[in-house]
Each structure stands twice: as C-alpha cells, then as structure tokens.
Write a structure and sequence with these properties.
By secondary structure, the chain is of the alpha/beta class. The protein has helices at residues 40-48, 70-80, 96-107, 112-125, 141-153, 171-188, 199-204, 222-240; strands spanning 2-11, 14-24, 29-33, 55-60, 63-64, 81-85, 159-163, 191-195, 207-212, 215-220. It is built from 8 helices and 10 strands. The longest helix is centred in the last third of the chain and has 19 residues, at 222-240.
C-alpha cells in the first residue's frame, strides 16, 4: 500500500532518518518503536505528506505523493488517511458527534445524509452512543480516544497513522483501543501504522520496526508474524483432531 524509498532527512546538522526503504502492505498493523526524539513522528509526517524529506520517495498505489501539490496532498490525507493522536486533538467546543463528522463535512465529497448515516453506524460500533452529545472535557481518556478513532475513520480511509494512541490511557482503555485496531484491520481491511512505546501494541502487531541512530531495523517481519500465527493454528487443529486408531488384522 505505502512504499518508502531511500527516505533521508535532517534537522540542522542532526541526521533523523537515514536511507530508509520499507513497504507497509494492506490489511496489516505495523508498530514503530524507538526512544523519544528518534524521528518516529517525523516518519509519520513524511508518510502523510505533511513533511518533505531531504531525499527519497513515498509511493501510494504507485504514485509518488511527494511530487503532488498542496491541494492533492490535502485530498490524500482527508480521503486515504485517518489520524489518531496521543492527546486526542478533539475540538473542545464541539460535541463528540460534531468532532466525528468534522473531517467529512470539510471534505465536500459526501452528502449530509451519507455523513450522518456513517457517523451513527460508527457511534454504535464503537459503543459511544451515550456520549455522542457530550463535550470532550466531560469524557474519560478512553472515551476521548474512541471518539478520536471514529473521527479518524469517518471518511473510510485505507490507512490509519497513530502516534502513541495508548500513551495517556489506563490499562483497561488501552486494551479496548488495541482490540479496536485489530477489528479495523480484520473487518475493515485497514492498514495501521502505529508509533508506540506500548509492548501490548508491539505484541499484537504484524510487524515491528525499531528506529535508532536514524536507521529503521525490522524486529518482527510480517512474513514471520504470519508464519507464527499459522504455526499456532496448526497446533490447535492438531489438538482438536483425534488420532486415528490402528486396526489389527484378524
């Protein structure tokens, strides 16, 4: 879905990303780990087209988004990408419902009825019916993040970019968000790229990449993750399948 080729960027004299080439396939969850300030959020910014690297290319469906102008990049972010942030970034003077529909309202490519239908379906699916008319200041951290995720997927994006989505949540809320990401991958076919320090996200991700000294190292690849899943499934199947009894000749 998204392919990076030789991405290199610096801030001043400091090298942040050094010749990074990587592909993020469809219907997968990839975790990007590394120390604070390592350049993980910068990488998300480049994938989204919000930042330009010093060198390199970012391909979406075979097109280099870094060659696009501002208007085309804005459409790409609005229709292809959903953003989820650590601090939620909900608009305080809007209700949950109004926050959720806001990206769709400004997209100008959907009717009001279509937007409302999608929003009501998401609100039911995420279990936030009771808080849809509440303002962000009255919500818990987990509730705010679910509203933020509903907002991120209102335009039915192909990809979610999440920056420390469980960083400000308690254990119960964090596990709910992790389960929701898995559902978005499995049932909605989304590609999810998560910057995180949370070992629970790393564990459930299909792939993990660790950023250190401007280099991105694969710690868990998608092929290996799938092989591990298939191995576990095979073991479960073997346990459930009764062994055939040998019959002796009379």
């Amino acid at each position: 879905m998204i392919t990076l080729e030789h991405i290199t960027t610096s801030f001043g004299h400091r090298l942040i990303l050094d010749d990074i080439s990587l592909e993020f396939p469809e219907r997968t969850i990839s975790a990007i780990t590394g120390k604070s300030g390592a350049g993980k959020t910068t990488l998300l910014g480049i994938i989204s087209g919000l930042q330009n690297p010093d060198r390199g290319k970012v391909y979406y469906k075979g097109k280099n988004i870094l060659r696009w102008g501002d208007i085309r990049r804005s459409k790409y972010r609005n229709r292809v990408i959903g953003f989820v942030f650590q601090f939620f970034n909900l608009l305080p003077d809007m209700t949950s419902y109004q926050n959720i529909v806001y990206p769709a309202r400004i997209s100008l490519f959907r009717s009001g009825n279509d937007i409302d239908t999608s929003a009501r379906e998401l609100i039911r699916e995420l279990g936030i019916e009771e808080i849809s008319d509440n303002y962000p200041t009255t919500l818990s951290g987990g509730e705010r993040q679910r509203v933020a995720i509903a907002r991120a997927i209102i335009n039915k994006p192909k990809m979610i970019l999440a920056d420390e989505p469980t960083g400000n949540l308690d254990d119960h809320s964090a596990r709910q968000i992790i389960a929701l990401f898995k559902k978005l991958r499995d049932e909605h076919g989304m590609t999810i790229i998560v910057v995180t320090h949370d070992p629970r996200i790393v564990e459930m991700a299909d792939a993990q990449y660790h950023l250190v000294n401007a280099k991105l190292t694969a710690m868990k690849t998608i092929r290996a993750a799938k092989a591990g899943t298939e191995k576990k499934t095979a073991k479960k199947t073997a346990k459930k399948t009764p062994a055939k009894k040998k019959t002796g000749s009379r």
